[in-house]
Amino acid sequence: MARRPVLASSCAVAATAAEARFRIDRPIDETRRTTVIALDRGAEHIAAGAAPEVSERVRFYNAAGDPGWGGAGAAVEGSDLVILVATPQLDRSTAAAVGRVCGRSRIPTFGLVVGRPLERAGAVSALRDQTAMLMASETPLDLADILSDLRA
Amino acid sequence: MLTHANNELLTRTGPGTPMGDLFRRYWIPALLAEELPEDDCPPVRVKLLSERMIAFRDSDGRYGLIDEFCAHRGASLWFGRNEEGGLRCAYHGFKFDVTGQCIEVPSEPEGSTFCTRVKLTAYPLVKIGEVLWTYMGPPEHQPPVPEYEFVTVPEEQSYTSKRWQECNWLQALEGGIDSSHVSFLHSSGLRDDPLFKGSKGNEYNLKDLRPHFEVVENEGGLFVAARRNADDGHYYWRVTPWVMPTFTMVPPRADHPVHGHFWIPIDDENCWVFTFDYHPTRALTAAERQAMIDGHGVHCEYVPGTYRPLANKDNDYLMDREGQKRGDSFSGVKGIAIQDASVQESMGPIVDRTKERLVATDAGIMKARHMLRNAVLALRDGGAVPPGVDPAHHRVRSFAIVLPREQPFTEVTDEVAVARPGVAHVSV
Q1: How many alpha carbons lie under 13 Å from residue B219 in its C-beta half-sphere?
Q2: Running along chain A, 152 residues long, what does each successive block of 10 average in pLDDT?
């Protein structure tokens, strides 16, 4: 097969600063619809700390202290992503109940467990089967950063 | 996505930049030892962290990394003569030793002490394993030398290569933390590559295309774990350690050598990818070493006489559309290293992260950026020693393991993610 000439704007050679200036610069999509659910009291504080830092479009819900929380279905409806926030205080039944709803809804779920390594192991274990992506961290500030990273 | 300010913060590594200051607290790979193979051999031009230098090996076998340009009139010392304990400028004969000290100015009268007051910037250059490492930061903060296992095992157990990648270091590093691209971009390598094939883990990889991920902080950086379904009641875990700022190690397959990378900034739009392969308990076989030299596994073929990949952006990475259709490879580009380089360079010299749309499986990338930013700011604002400086942080291993579903991988990291001389790595 005859090779075609490589033009200055073709993909590979276009990886220059000069060509990068010509990248199309129009909005690609609407903002992601993200729901944050705090699963315990510690998580409630973390979510409250992050809320002022992020867009009003992010929806926050609180399942803390209510093992049979019935609000999960309504909370996740219409979401593109659900972030489950937990700390070592997590109650497994709450995690399982919310996780089941997210699983049935086929919405990607992201688990964030905040706590010291030895203390958070139980919460990490409880969220492992409920989330596609799990982050274990020592800093509560990660929640606001994650929401920003995800354009939530 | 990152704000423009944070993208600038993390990608600029020249002198005086916050990320540049962070890099200057670590020993980093500068060259391969093969580039300075003998005493008084030709000097080598080196650019790292946007500083141009010259590396040489003097008559006594001492390594030097000094300012490339002569203190006299600014001529490049690459044209110099490496002889009798120093590098002599070809222009007027100024001579410098490995510490950058001028030791001779031929035009000065005999007995003149002028040369003692002329000194070029110089950085330490030490050989550990088959790599020459440098430390470009404040001398008073120079840490102990690196203890990564691939450079502490006997030479016959290890092989290191390097290649030029034409983009910023961070987008290259992020490829090493992003485990989710392997099932797509590199899927063919699991079947065919002599350095990967034959692993039971490959079957798990190819059967379960929706891995779950876990990102966990570690003392020197992160563990990024990918979990896939294995046989009854078990998960197959592949765990990648990242040691700040720029070391990653790919989980092993069967008894193949284990490999990893450093992404070292040349300047803000180019980086060196240092790639190693080693086995903790045995010598590499002749066939394995030859496969690495031939560019298999995570290594590549080169433009002869250079460290530039043979497949590069000037030839569209030798894209094979027919092979792509046949399924020889997912992207039509041959080889894991060049598959990575092709997509990462296509993003532009410094990708504009204000426009990206990350998804949940990018959590490793997100967390690494948080940790880099936090370390940069803690160093800038309070002089905090960053994670990954302590050699204890270097003694990590990647691993692949099958565990009962109820057992988290973090329960075994103290046992299997630590480099132990003479003990085999944990692999599937």
Answers
A1: 12
A2: 56 70 79 91 96 89 86 91 95 88 90 93 90 93 93 86
Q: Which residues in B have their CB inside 8 Å of a CB on A? A: 1-2, 166-167, 210, 212-217, 227, 269, 313-317, 322, 342, 345-350, 352, 355, 357-363, 366-367, 369-370, 406, 408, 410-411
% residues pLDDT > 90 (chain B): 88
Cα B314 to the center of its chain, rounded Å: 23
Nearest chain B CA: its distance from A109 CA (Å): 8
Q: What is the pTM of this model?
A: 0.94
Q: Are B217 and A148 an interchain contact pair (Cβ–Cβ within 8 Å)?
A: no
Q: In A, which residues are within 8 Å of B209 by CB distance?
A: none
Q: Tell me the DSSP string of B335-371.
A: SHHHHHHHHHHHT-SS--TTS----GGGHHHHHHHHH
B48 close to B27: Cβ distance less than 8 angstroms = no
CA atoms within 13 A on the CB side of B282: 11
Question: Angle CA(A56)–CA(A60)–CA(A66) in degrees, nearest 5?
Answer: 165
ipTM metric: 0.89
| pLDDT confidence of residue A6 | 56
Chain B hits for A132, CB-CB cut-off 8 Å, are 210, 212-213, 360-361
Give the 3-state secondary structure of residue A126. Answer: helix
Both structure tokens of B150: 């691939």
In the three-class reduction of DSSP (H, G, I as helix; E, B as strand; rest coil), residue B134 is classed as strand
Contacts of A134 in chain B (CB under 8 A): 212-215, 363
DSSP count for chain B of H helices, then E strands = 12, 19
- Which one of A3, A79, A145, A147 makes the best mutation probe of the B interface by having the most chain B beta carbons within 10 Å? A145
Chain A partners within 8 Å of B212 (Cβ): 128, 131-134
Is A150 an 8 Å CB contact of chain B? Answer: yes
How many Å apart are CA B133 and CA B58, to the nearest integer? 17
A62 touching B (Cβ < 8 Å): no
Could you say which DSSP state residue B426 is in? P
pLDDT digits (tens, 9 = 90+) for B21-51: 999 999 999 999 999 999 999 999 999 999 9
Is residue B83 classed as helix, strand or coil in its secondary structure?
A: strand
Q: Do B348 and A128 touch (CB under 8 A)?
A: no
Token pair of B233, please? Answer: 């009641």
CB atoms within 10 A of CB B329: 21
- d(Cα A63, Cα A43) in Å, to the nearest integer? 9
Burial, B330: exposed, middle or buried (Cβ in 10 Å; 0-12, 13-18, 19+)? Answer: middle
The 8-class DSSP code of residue A37 comes to: E
Residue B413 host element (H or E):
helix B413-416
Query: Residue B390 corresponds to which tokens in the numbers above?
Result: 């302590």
Please list every residue in chain B whose beta carbon sits closer than 8 Å to the beta carbon of residue A128. 212, 214, 227, 408
B427: three-class secondary structure by DSSP: coil
